[in-house]
Amino acid sequence: MSDVIFPHCPQCTSPMSTDPVEGYYHCTRMDCNFVQYLNPTPVVAAVVEYEHEQLVLAHNASWPEGWFGLITGFLERYEHPDQAIIREVKEELGLQAQASSLIGHYTFERMNQLIIAYHVKVSGTVVLNDELDAYRIIPYEKVQYWPSGTGFALRDHLQQRGFSPLQRSFK
Ligand SMILES: [Zn+2]
User: Fold this and answer.
1) Mean pLDDT of all residues in the chain?
2) Residues whose CB is under 5 A from ligand 1 (ion)?
3) Cα(37) to centroid of ligand 1, in Å?
């Protein structure tokens, strides 16, 4: 994970630099050239549309109560994001996507992530996996977005569909 900073060099165990220079840390030993880059981690996120213009939001078991978000997940090795988002929706909601399309890319600086956001259409019976413990299905006209990476993807999708969602405070 690129947001974990090595205190010691994994090659020679010397201390690593403590200030990132141009986006990376370097080993402090003169004859060691190890550097740790701080590249963002790609994450896929789904604006899940249930039947017609209803949004599925889910609550992760580890989140504070009352906080609901998009379906998200990390890419597996060599996995294309188009496949990853279908897999994540299937794993987390138990639903097979009927269609998916790219909304866009968003930065999530607090987690040093690059969000690759999709619109995914589903129907059927939601069956949550172990990561999730609750979900909500909300008509598009009542959806509010939150001011961070996945929230901006939600906003952009709703606006593309002709809605004018309000921003709510980020809990
Ligand atoms: Zn070193």
Assistant:
1) 94
2) 9, 11-12, 14, 27, 29, 32, 34
3) 14
Find, among 3, 24, 168, 144, the residue nearest to 74 by Cα.
3
**pLDDT tens digits along 159-171:** 999 999 999 875 5
Rounded to whole angstroms, the Cα distance separating 118 from 85 reads 7
Residue with tokens 């059927």: 124
Whether the model pTM is above 0.85: yes
Task: Delineate the domains of the chain, giving CATH numbers in brackets.
Answer: 1-38 (no CATH), 41-160 (3.90.79.10)
For ligand 1, the distance from its centroid to the CA atom of residue 35, given in whole angstroms, is 8
The region, left, alpha or beta by phi > 0 then psi within -120 to 50, assigned to residue 13 is left
Q: What is the pLDDT of residue 19?
A: 84
Quote the ligand 1 centre to 19 CA distance (angstroms). 16
